[in-house]
Amino acid sequence: MKLGLLAGGGPFPARVAEAAIARGHEVFVVLLRDFYDAPELRAYPHMEERVGAGGAIIQRLRAEGVTHLVLCGKASRISPLTLWPDAWMARVIARLGKAIFAGDDTLLRNFIGILGEEGFEVIAPQSLLPASFANPGLLAGEAPDELARADIIRGIGVLRALADHDVGQSVVVQQGLILGIEAVEGTDALLARAGSLRRDGPGGVLVKLAKPQQELRVDAPVVGSITVAHAADAGLRGIAIEAGRTILADGEGLLAAARKRGIFVLAIQPEEFARSA
Question: Which of 9, 140, 12 lies closest to 75, judged by CA?
Fold first, then answer.
C-alpha cells in the first residue's frame, strides 16, 4: 500500500515514516504547516500545506496514489473561524456541524468517516509500530511510594469522572491536590501551568490515560522525552501512563531521559491499579 502521513509536531511522525518504509510501504508525507517540526521528514516525498487547504491535500494524495492515511504528531485545535478553509474544507465543516465544537473524540470520529468516503482508509500509527505501546510495569526510575501511588489513584478518578465530557487525557496531582487538568492547551502547557502551582514537599505525578471511548487510530495518548523534560521541570516525581493504550513517542529516548532526570515512568492498568489502594 502507499501511505499518506499527515505529520504534526514532535518526533513521532518521523518514527512512523521510518517504520512504514521498513515494512515495505511507500510513503508520502504531508507536512502540516505551523505544526510539524521534524526537518528529517523532508527526506521523503512530501508537500507542505496549511490545515485549512484540505482540498489541495486530498487532490495531491490522490495524484500520488495514496490509499491509506496515518495522522500523527502534536497539533492544537484550530478555531473554524481562523481556519481559512478552501472549498473542500468548507464543505467538511458544514457537514461536521456541531461536531466542530464538540470534544476531540466526536470530531475525529466524524472526520475519519469523511476521509473514508473520499476513498482513504485511516490506520493507526501504532499498527506500524506495535512495540510503541507500553507494557504494564515500571519502565524507568524508582517505584512510586505510597504518596505517589495515592496521587496516581486520585488522578485516575478525576480522568474517569471527566471522560464522558471528552475533556482531556492528563491530570497533574500533588499530595492529593489537583494542580491542573488538560483541556485544549495540551500536555506540555498543562505541565508548565502545574509547575507554577506546585507546593513545597514531595513532587506530584502526571497521570495520562486514554478515555474509554477514545479514537485510538488518530488520537492515542502519546508521551515522549519532551514530556519527561517538562514533567521534571515542573517538579514532578513521575509519570503514570495507561499500559497498552499510550504510545512511547521516542521509545528508549524517553526512558533514558526519565532515568537522567530522576523521575519514574509507570505503565498501569487504571482500574486494577485503583483497586490496589
Answer: 9
